[in-house]
Design a protein that fits this description.
With 131 residues, the protein is mostly beta strands. It has one domain: Beta Barrel (Thrombin, subunit H). Helix content is 14%, strand content 59%. A 6-stranded antiparallel barrel has the order 1-2-3-6-5-4. The radius of gyration is 19 Å and the shape is globular. The mean pLDDT is 83.
Amino acid sequence: MFKPASVIKRLRARFGTTISITNNTTSTTNYTTGVETKVATTVTGVKAIVVQATSAKKFAYDIAYLAANTNFTYGGLFMRTAYVVILLKSDYSGTLTIESTITYNGIAYAIENIVTLTDLSGYIINMRASK
């Protein structure tokens, strides 16, 4: 029988890298000042397989172009890079949600999608740069 966890362990041993996973655990709000304080927990040194999925240039128009449709506009060309992370539950015992943040090579990435493996041994995660 095919076991995804054994294949992932072999790939991780050969191509694995370390990532950090941050979860927002609690938040409190001061109703007098309106300031919200968030407390986050970060787990560093998590071994995972990280693969670049896509790298595409995207042009973003200025809001003036969209509103008035004039000939003179400002815009910018942005490079959007997406990654796929393969993570075993044995490597990370915490909770993993869409609100979690993954830090890879010093850049924080937002999780777009989490798929649980068929034998429930791990996750396949799609992520993009959060800023």
